[in-house]
Amino acid sequence: MWYIIGLMLGTLVLGAVWFLKAKNLNFKWYEWVIGIIGLGLLLFTIQNFLGSLEELEPKAAYTFLLITGLPALILLVLAWQLAVRRAKKA
Amino acid sequence: MSAFHSTVSRKEFIKRLGLTGAGLGALTAAAPVFHDLDEVTSSKLGVGPQHPWYVKEREILDPTCEFDWDQYQRFDNSPENRLIGIDTLMIRDLKWLDEHPVLKETIRLKESDVDTTCVQKKFPSYDHDTRDGAMWAAGIAGMQYPMYGSFLGQFTMSGASKPIYFMNPNELTHPGEISYPPGVKFVETPPTTYPRWNGTPEENLKTLTAAVRHFGGQEVGVVELNEKTKKFIYSRDDRRLGSSATRDIVFEDVDLAYETDTKSVIPNKCNRVIVFTNLQPTEITLTQPGGISGSAVSYSRMFKMTVEMHAFIHALGYQHIDGSHWALSPSVPFGIMAGLGEAGRTGMSIISYKYGNMIRCVNRIITDMPLPLTKPIDSGTYRFCHTCKLCAEACPYNALPMDTEPCWDTEWEDENKIHNYIGGYKAYRASLQRCPRCRACQAVCVFNAKDSAFAHQLVKSIQASNPMFNTFFRNMHESFGYGMQNPNDWWEKNLPSYGVDPAFLY
Q1: Per-position DSSP letters for B14-52, written without gaps between them
Q2: Which of B7, B48, B316, B318 could bridge to B374 as Cys pair (CB 3.0-4.6 Å)?
Q3: 3-class secondary structure for B397-440?
Q4: pLDDT digit of tens for each residue in chain B (506 aa)?
């Protein structure tokens, strides 16, 4: 499970770094904070989703996707959009 | 060419590398160092239950639920005096029930299949079928292998051996018949090729833990048998060797345990109580009170394990006086004092931060083997029970207390009238007259959570130090669909051997 999580996380971070360089973007400190919290929440969601399935608790697994996964995505998108819109203004 | 380059200079890099190395070196120097294997086996590392960081150990005989040692007295567990509940029907006739209308009503409810109705409230499509009954019958069949406890731990040190007796369940219908468990007729003490085992107390506890795990048990703790804890031992009991005669249980300054027609004698030198737990199959426990209860097969595993532990201690060369199931003493106080769990709302079992309410038995063996003591713990479970009440709400017989605060006696008026409780400790007590052992309370406990999803560790660690979020955690437990599962689905699951979730095997 942790292997899969590690792969997913590594891909995400690589994608994020590539994206930043490609668009020549800089994150402000608050964008970093939002992004890191979002990433932490995403990691928490993935681990609990896979762990709950391992525990034979499918309802709990899907509830984690909703309760913690959705806010995680929102925060990540927010961080990304704040940076992109700031760059566009500039 | 990439525009990316490191801003760390060579000098800075080497400096950071050196500091990391120095830090690792300091850490190693501060870590425990063993010079040889004897030091490893004698060290406190790995001795007794290994608790996570958020579980605090308390002082010996100072558990989270308070005890008043002046008020707590030894209980007379003779058939005439035994606590009135569904168990006592084994020694009573049905006419006696007219004197106990609460118990009579419980039996009526049981016979009207309230257990199934309870499951159907959550899973309307559920209905028990022949397979459920077959599983129960199989579990009971396993229980025919030694039944209840045996007092006798007597053996001679000269190399001769004594059989280990267990009361045959047929004892009730064929009094006087003793059935030797097959394969455990005689145990050499010690085996002729080996000297008596003389380990340090820490080595002995590690040895016993390895044995318990090997035989299928979980945690092992040790309680001292002193003037206070002797009060946990019944003053009289009938679940003894051979006949069902009631005997006084007394303590004497003798070398070996022995029995006469009127008394069972525990030597004062046998001042250690080995306490070990045996877990129910976890997935099946969550289906209770559906028909395929996990308790019957757990008893058969417990009895088998108990026989093995007796034979093991016997062969090591030490005395072993049995307190399996409910023989010799109630199990919960020893479990609490040994640090294997805390008192919970169900009253009849310990609640473990790790195994929740899924522990079937807390077995006891009194011995003269040198052993260190294990301490009671504070893992937050006793405090969590104050506000949770999920088990009491789930109980189809309304047999569990709903008061927030535990009490020193009982909150049940009908139990109080006939003094159907043991006083002297501040905890919750189930109504013995209302509880037919359907075990719905086991299925719903919040602490049954397994270890694969990280959220459980987060919840357990937070509630251990701060009760502020306990109500929130309790509500989330229900919202996330934990708790009772559909018994019909159990047959479709891909379960491990013995039905125990792998997270609980370590």
Answers
A1: HHHHHHHHHHHHHHHHHS---SSHHHHHHSSTT-S----
A2: B48
A3: CCCCCCCCCCECCCCCHHHHHCCCCCCCECECCCCCCCCCCCCH
A4: 555 565 678 888 888 888 887 777 766 665 556 666 666 555 556 788 889 999 999 999 999 999 999 999 999 988 888 888 887 776 677 788 888 899 999 989 988 989 999 999 999 999 888 888 888 778 777 665 544 443 333 322 222 333 333 333 333 333 444 333 333 334 445 555 567 889 999 999 999 999 999 999 999 999 999 999 999 999 998 765 444 568 899 999 998 887 787 888 899 999 999 999 999 999 999 998 887 777 778 888 887 888 788 878 877 888 888 776 667 899 999 999 999 999 999 998 899 999 999 998 899 999 999 999 999 999 999 999 999 999 999 999 999 999 999 999 998 999 998 888 999 999 999 999 999 989 999 999 999 998 889 999 999 999 999 999 999 999 999 999 999 999 999 999 989 988 888 888 77
Mutate to test the interface with A, among B4, B444, B452, B457 (most CBs of A within 10 A): B452
Sign of the Cα pseudo-torsion (B485, B486, B487, B488, in order):
negative
Question: Which chain A residue has its CA at the smallest distance from B4's CA?
Answer: A21
Q: What ranges in B219-356 are assigned the alpha helix state H?
A: 282-285, 295-316, 332-337
pTM: 0.84
> Would you call B490 an interface residue with chain A, using a CB distance cutoff of 8 Å?
no
d(CA B223, CA B364): 10
**B:434-473 residues touching chain A, CB 8 A cutoff:** 450, 452-455
Residue A56: HSE in the Cβ half-sphere, 13 Å Cα cutoff: 20
Scanning B278-317 for CB atoms below 8 A from A yields 283
Determine the Cα angle at B316 with ends B377 and B165, to 5°: 90
How many angstroms separate the CA atoms of B295 and B289, rounded?
10
Q: Are B74 and B234 a contacting pair, CB within 8 Å?
A: yes
| Dihedral angle over CA of B343, B349, B354, B358, nearest 10 | -150
Q: Please indicate whether, in this complex, the C-beta atoms of A63 and B481 are within 8 angstroms of each other.
A: yes
Pairing state of beta strands B76-77 and B236-237? parallel
Q: What is the ipTM of this complex?
A: 0.85
| Tokens 């020893």 -> residue | B334
Torsion B239-B240-B242-B244 (CA) sign: negative
Q: Which of A51, A59, A64 sits opposite B452 (nearest CB)?
A: A51
Closest residue by Cα to residue B83 from B92, B93, B71: B92
State how far residue B58 is from chain A, nearest Cα, in angstroms. Answer: 32
Using an 8 Å CB-CB cutoff, list chain B residues near A66: none
